[in-house]
Amino acid sequence: MPRGKIVKALSGFYYVQYEGGLVQCRGRGNFRQKKITPLVGDYVEFEYHDKKEGYIMAISERENQLTRPPIANVDQAIIVTSVKQPDLSLNLLDKFLVLVESKSIQPLLFFTKMDLLEEEEESIVREKLAYYQTIGYEVEFLSTKDRELNHQLSVHLNQKVSVFAGQSGVGKTSLLNTIIPDLQLETDNISESLGRGKHTTRHVELITFEEGLVADTPGFSALDFKEIDLEVLPECFPEFVELQNQCKFRGCMHVKEPKCAVKAALDRGEILEDRYQNYLQFVEEIKNRKPRY
């Protein structure tokens, strides 16, 4: 039985890429009874009579999956954050990082609109963002007229399945349209009052870019911690993970526990104060969420 990868899902059809080309498939009949939904990015086994009539028979175990966009087996998330219009929000950035880390997806940080900052503003912003490099994240700084964009992205996107993430209006859709002009994703100007851009994406598709695959959607913009348990949260902060074995108590939450290595590092100025405050806010958010039934 041939194997392939779902690269597009539209109106109940799944388009499976395999060494012989592309086959249009439906899910097998008992998928619905078993509440199994194939996702773009799934590795599948399928049968087909011709290129327009195939059936997905089995889905391989997923490495990870996202709800918005509905996609599986993502290697990396390019988190796009603007430093101006809308202004830089480390709170939103850290929220995206927690969601991505919780799915075991490698984050890559792109900061856009650097050229819109005044000189003094830029040095303050770069100093704060340098912290993210010190804790192991790969960072790229982009201007609104970056001519090296394709080269910068091709270095990171080759041989990987990538998805873009970030709040509305930060330039995700423009980035995608720049690297893959055939996409022609719709963008609107940012509303001055709302500070938001708009996009429309009718389906999810993996588009070939160089030797990688890129999801053709500007990515998840709804942010909540419904799927993240409280004890998992510290594991989504790599600098906390590095120190956790030095805490007095196993399973330390780094909030009020005595002899906490994370709080000691914070006191020494080794952990960014803004980021730790965001962590405390996320702890409260998870504690106060309504129970799921």
Summed up:
The protein has 293 residues and is α/β, with parallel strands linked by helices.
Describe this structure in words.
- With 293 residues, the chain is an alpha/beta fold.
- It is globular, with a radius of gyration of 21 Å.
- The chain has eight helices and 15 strands.
- The chain has helices at residues 30-33, 90-102, 119-134, 149-157, 172-179, 238-243, 261-267, 273-288, and strands at 3-10, 13-18, 21-27, 43-50, 53-59, 65-66, 71-72, 76-82, 106-112, 138-141, 161-165, 186-187, 199-200, 204-209, 212-215.
- Strand 9, helix 3 (119-134) and strand 10 form a beta-alpha-beta unit.
- It is 27% helix and 26% strand.
- It folds into three domains: 3-61, Beta Barrel (OB fold (Dihydrolipoamide Acetyltransferase, E2P)), CATH 2.40.50.140; 66-215, Rossmann fold (3-Layer(aba) Sandwich); 230-288, Ribonucleotide Reductase Protein R1, domain 1 (Orthogonal Bundle).
- Helix 2 packs across helix 8 (273-288).
- A five-stranded mixed barrel has the order 1-2-3-5-4. Strands 6-7 form a two-stranded antiparallel ribbon.
- Belongs to the TRAFAC class YlqF/YawG GTPase family. RsgA subfamily.
- Zn(2+) binds at residues 247, 252, 254, 260.
- It is found in: Cytoplasm.
- Keywords: Cytoplasm, GTP-binding, Hydrolase, Metal-binding, Nucleotide-binding, Ribosome biogenesis, RNA-binding, rRNA-binding, Zinc.
- Its EC number is 3.6.1.-.
